[in-house]
Amino acid sequence: MQTSIALNEKLATFDEAWQPRTVALFNGHDVMVAKLRGQYHWHVHEDSDDFFLVLQGQLEIDLDGSPTVSLAPGQLYVVPRGLRHRPRAIGEAHILLIEPTGTPNSGDPLTAAPRRVI
After folding, report:
1. Which of 39, 52, 55, 104 is the most core-located residue (most Cβ within 10 A)?
2. Rounded to whole angstroms, how far apart are CA atoms 33 and 97?
3. DSSP assignment letter at 82
4. DSSP β-bridge partners for residue 31
5. What pTM does this model have?
6. Phi and psi at residue 14, to the nearest 5°
7. How far apart are the C-alpha atoms of 81 and 100, rounded to whole Å?
């Protein structure tokens, strides 16, 4: 039987920004936590939606051709597949992500952060 996962404890094991860590598997998906600081680059996921749940801090997601989405702790947003976007943390934000295992965080396997399981 599996034990529960303390997300704050998992987040305390690393400091790097924009480097998601897989904390669980769910029906072929990675459940990940990440720390974000500053802005990421514009990118797109052609094959999957992009799920963001803010655990701590503030996150803004710029959407190509649509208004920016602002998220506070406890709020989530799903970027539809194929929509170019850019997440931006106000200060430092901690988030939970759910993506199909193997999905590159940058939208491009050549520039993606490596998969890390903690």
Report:
1. 52
2. 6
3. T
4. 24, 98
5. 0.89
6. -150, 160
7. 12
Beta-carbon contacts of residue 15 (< 8 Å; ≥ 6 apart): 35
Give the DSSP H or E segment for 97: strand 85-100
Q: ∠ at Cα 108 (58, 117), nearest 5°? A: 65
Region label for 107, one of left (φ > 0), alpha (ψ between -120 and 50) or beta (otherwise): left
pLDDT at 102: 79
pLDDT tens-digit profile of 17-57?
A: 999 999 999 999 999 999 999 999 999 988 899 999 999 99
Contact 33, 23 (CB under 8 A): yes
* Angle, alpha carbons 107-110-114 (nearest 5°): 85
Tell me if 86 sits within 8 A of 113, measured CB to CB: no
**pLDDT, averaged across the chain:** 91
Residue 69 in contact with residue 77, Cβ under 8 Å?
Answer: yes
